[in-house]
Structure formats: structure tokens, C-alpha cells
Write a structure and sequence with these properties.
Layout: E1 2-7, H1 19-27, E2 30-33, H2 36-45, E3 52-54, H3 61-72, E4 77-80, H4 92-100, E5 108-113, H5 118-125, E6 134-137, H6 145-152, E7 159-163, H7 168-177, E8 185-190, E9 198-203, H8 204-207, E10 217-222
Parallel strand pairs: 1-4, 1-5, 2-3, 2-4, 6-7
Antiparallel strand pairs: 7-10, 8-9, 8-10
Length: about 220
């Protein structure tokens, strides 16, 4: 049976990739990448010669149809994102959904290859009760931001967000402005697993002035 592997890759430290993931990336016929340049850094590091092809959020329906054709030709494929686990805040789930809605699904096997994820990495060190939590991905850039933050504060469980260096300060200030009567406690990870990994803990008001807006951020909000 033809196979599509959903393969997790490191979120920073290349040593975090699993032995199973390396074996699969070597064995498949083609690797579908969010950005081929990023994926090739991993492949070159581990001397993997498997060809790559781009597949990302802006890929057309024609690209998806080409992927379907490859699977019909009994080519085994691997899907990776730039970092972490495909399908979480990237278009991996869109591809899986397209395949599941096609009769092709009966002739292929979709196999998860678990591994690194910024979501679980920050949850493991947050210090908050994480037996239940809400993951909200990236906040909207413009439309719906206020509603998004208001909804977060209505949940009774910790909430995890992703944020870019360009909007991290703005997001923290907007979160803080939505709160009255108490101060939000947060744990924030910057550049997780990388050389300049930094963890910030405490009240948003105190953390804002400590933040260096460089790299990728993951925020845990304790309500």
C-alpha cells in the first residue's frame, strides 16, 4: 500500500530529530517541504539525498493534484514543515483532508511520525497545570484581534499561542489591556531548543520590558 508519512522535524536543534524520521526521509521517493531550502539544511546535515518538492499554504489545487498523481503511481512520500509537527499551524492538515475526501484514500496509508513540537515543548516547562489546555495558534494580524483576545480570557484552562518577533510586544500589551482586576501569569519561550533559547516567566507587565523581539515565540497564558 502506498504511504504518505507526516514527519516531525526539529524546531531548532537538529539533534532532536528521531531515528525513525531519519530512516523514513531516506527511504521515501519524495519529500514534500514547506520551504525546500529549510528542509535541505536538515537533509544535508544527515547526508540524505532524497529529492524534495515544495508544498505550502499558497500551493494551488494543481499542486495537490500532482501529489495525488504521485501517490497513484505508488510513490511513497513524506510531508514535513519548516519545523515541528506538520498539520499544526501549517497546511499539512489541508493535504490530509484533500486525500481523505478523494477515493484515492482507500489505496494509501497516512502514517504519523511523531517528534518535536513547539506546542508540547513549552507545555512541558510551563509550570502550569497542563492536563487540559487550549491551543489557539497565531493571533489574527488585523481583523478580529480584539475578539480573539477576549475569547482567550473566557477559557478556564491555560492557553498556548504562537507569535512572531514582529508582533510579540503588541500581542502582550493587547492581552494585558483586556484584563481588569488581576494580572495574567505567562510562560514564554523564545527560540526554543536553539542556541539563544530564553524562557520568561511571570506577570505580563513585568515580562514585556524583558522581551528581546528576535526569533519565534510560544506563549502560555495561565488563567
Amino acid at each position: 500500500m502506498t504511504k504518505l508519512y507526516i514527519v516531525s522535524t526539529p524546531i531548532g536543534n537538529l539533534k532532536d530529530i528521531t531515528l525513525r524520521a531519519l530512516d523514513i526521509l531516506k527511504e521515501v521517493d519524495l519529500i514534500l517541504c514547506e520551504d525546500t531550502r529549510v528542509t535541505k539544511k536538515i537533509l544535508n546535515h544527515y547526508d540524505i539525498k532524497t529529492p524534495v518538492q515544495s508544498y505550502h499554504q499558497h500551493s494551488s489545487l494543481g499542486k495537490i493534484n500532482k501529489i495525488k498523481d504521485l501517490l497513484k503511481q505508488e510513490k511513497n512520500l513524506a510531508l514535513v514543515s519548516d519545523s515541528g509537527t506538520p498539520g499544526i499551524s501549517d497546511p499539512g492538515n489541508k493535504l490530509v483532508n484533500e486525500l481523505m475526501s478523494d477515493k484515492l484514500m482507500s489505496s494509501i496509508e497516512i502514517i504519523p511520525v511523531p517528534g518535536p513540537s513547539a506546542l508540547t515543548t513549552i507545555a512541558s516547562i510551563s509550570g502550569f497545570p497542563m492536563d487540559k489546555f487550549i491551543f489557539m495558534g497565531f493571533p489574527p494580524h488585523k481583523k478580529g484581534r480584539n475578539k480573539f483576545f477576549r475569547e482567550i480570557l473566557e477559557y478556564k484552562y491555560p492557553v498556548i499561542l504562537y507569535e512572531s518577533p514582529y508582533r510579540i510586544i503588541k500581542t502582550l500589551k493587547e492581552l494585558d489591556s483586556q484584563v481588569t482586576g488581576y494580572e495574567l501569569q505567562v510562560t514564554i519561550g523564545r527560540e526554543l531548543t536553539k542556541k539563544f533559547e530564553t524562557i520568561y516567566r511571570g506577570k505580563i507587565k513585568n515580562i514585556i520590558n524583558q522581551i528581546k523581539p528576535k526569533g519565534e515565540f510560544v506563549i502560555v497564558i495561565n488563567l
